[in-house]
Design goal:
It comes from Rhizobium laguerreae. This is Antirestriction protein ArdC. The structure is a single chain. By secondary structure, the chain is mainly alpha-helical. The protein is 77% helix and 0% strand.
């Protein structure tokens, strides 16, 4: 796994930032799909 990342980073030093941005968009999307808790459930 790490060897694969080392190869990618060897070719593109900014690849980690691109991967992190894609991961953040995925997390944002998954959070969007979650039903929102009502205030009384959260308390």
């Amino acid at each position: 796994y790490l060897d694969g990342w080392l190869k990618v980073l060897g070719n593109d030093k900014r690849a980690i930032f691109s991967a992190a941005a894609h991961a953040q968009r995925a997390v944002d999307y998954l959070h969007f799909l979650q039903p929102e808790l009502e205030e009384e459930e959260a308390a």
